[in-house]
Amino acid sequence: MSILGDALTLYAREFLIFKKNINVSVARSVMFPLVFILLLGNIGNTSKNLPVAIVNYDNGINSIKFINLLEAANIVRVLSVTNQQSALNMLYMGQVTMVIVIPPHFGTNNQGSQTLTTYLDSSVPFSTTILVNQVEQTAKQFDAQVLSKGINSANMQQSPTTSFNVNYTYGTASDYKDFLIAGVMLSVVIFGALWSGGFTMLTDRQLGNLKTFLVTPIHRFSILLSKLGMGVTQSTMAGIFALVIGILDGGHMACGLYGVALIFMFIVLASIGFGALAIILATRTSKIETYSITGTMIMMPMWFLSGAFSPTNTFPPWLQFLSAIDPLTYAVDGVRYLFLKGFIPTSVLITDVVVLIIFSVISLIASVLLFKNTIE
Amino acid sequence: MKDYAIEITKLVKKFGDFVAVNKLDIAIERGEIFGLLGPNGSGKTTTINMLLGLLEPTSGTIHLDGMNVVEDSSEAKGKVGLVTQETVVEGELTATENLRLFGRLYHLPDDVINKRIGELLELAGLEKFKDNYAGTFSGGMQRRLSVVKALIHNPKILVLDEPTVGLDVQNRSNLWELLRKINRERGVTILLTTQYLEEADQLCNRISIINNGKVVASGTPSQLKQQVSKHQIIEIAVEKKFLVKTEEIIKSLYKENVRVTGDKVYFPATGDSLEMLNSLVKKLSKSGIEVVSIGMHQPTLDDVFLKLTGTSLRDSASNTDNGQGKDVLKMMK
Predict the structure, then answer these.
(1) In this predicted complex, what is the ipTM?
(2) Which CATH class name applies to A50-158?
């Protein structure tokens, strides 16, 4: 019989165990997305109390009114700065997200008095849209226009264009929760790999089941495949739960069914690579404690660096480098495109998929080689 | 060449510089119950692992029912069933599902599997519990299930690694009965390792004691016991402070095979044992040694084991719970 047939037999065994412990299995898949989306998704909504420096050259009644209105929505926390240069310095230093310059005689008909100049830190993208909308709406009440200048504090350069330069990293909805849901859908992959496939490989070794499988005439690769299959199943399930919980909690998904199919392709691809990684660990360690600690130590950084929680382009350069060599980054990138923007450029899709396939192949080969000497 | 169930020839296994198995020769005839005994790190487990095709020998050959375990790996695996030291049953699977899983892994057709499941559950006395989860079974039931699970593919050879560890006396004798039945009725050759000499004594037709990867003694249990002494073993217990002196006196009188454990001195009797005892007690009391107790027993396998390997099997086994040997192997890898 083929390796695949044996793998299916062993997968059926895993599935029977899964079914017997259905409560635990489902709880495990639900808990993670539930906690992250419901708690972090709502806590981490950083579009509140955004620090904004205001340089007020007017000091008239209208400008005071404008500032009060702006503050009323709780989106903005105003810092008054007397000098435009020091306000811009604050923007460079990341102390404020935006600088608003109020011209003299604001709100009157004098020439030039109806244009608010705003300087925006476009490298903190998820607050910008909300901020700009808020400023524009408030300015409208004074018949004022907003002239926005984008500044990217990441490279300390004023951008050449004076037009609006918002980086829509989070998509148009630009809600942290949406941003997070996409990240969580991929983070579950790591948990599926660690606590499903890899973990049962370790317990099978400890309890002696593995030895009883190895003395049968099956190819040992089929054992590995069944573990990977179970990891993929668990990850996909958790991914579905993440999607459902996210949408029930008010998240917006920009893509349609085709996009969802692509999202799950990313989940499956990443599950294979990370599942193999967990199996390597499970064949190299003999204690559950060692496995848990080492696994968490390896997976946690990959998880944080992937941009699951915050956009990678806001990272300092050395973290951006680490993030670029983290395979999970590419899976998160692909899913986030689809989830937030509803499309994915072909070049991005190809890059993401190729990186994930290379990662999966390498970790699969490594796991096969290392599993070869495992006899109990 | 004689047709053996298991034939191990000049088997060598090295882990780096460490020689775990050193030119081991064992031939087990069809229908035998054969015991492999040895202290930890003696090469028992390594030998079993090679026999099961889990480890590749450095040199030498193993034939199972004529099949070379390296060259005809797949066929050889079909000839042998394994009962591991730990009771390996899937608690989350029913008795039937447990057996079916292994039937499939041995690539048996479904109708054969179903037929055998019925037979084997009956053999294990578990037919009433066929749809119960194995996790709800008692220790003895689980162990019986794990034994018949190893028979799903009708192997000619059954290998048991410490089959009765952790079982109480009653379950142990039940399992012995089951193993005898399997041996007798199904003609299965049984190879077992054990740390209970009583078990080897009760169950095995023949025994090999291995130490440092070599066979140091082979034979039936009674042959081995006779190697120690044809006569009774005398044991004298004295107070601890007299122990060294007692040993000296006895050694000066009888020379051979005097050994000391705890507060007792053992030595084999020669000639008229009663006369020996009398004169010895007199001699000891003359030297001011008070004898606490005195007794005689027929030689046991424990005496054999001690004489041959210098360690008591049960002591070394219970101290490390068989972990030491494995650690050595892991270090070697």
Answers:
(1) 0.80
(2) alpha beta
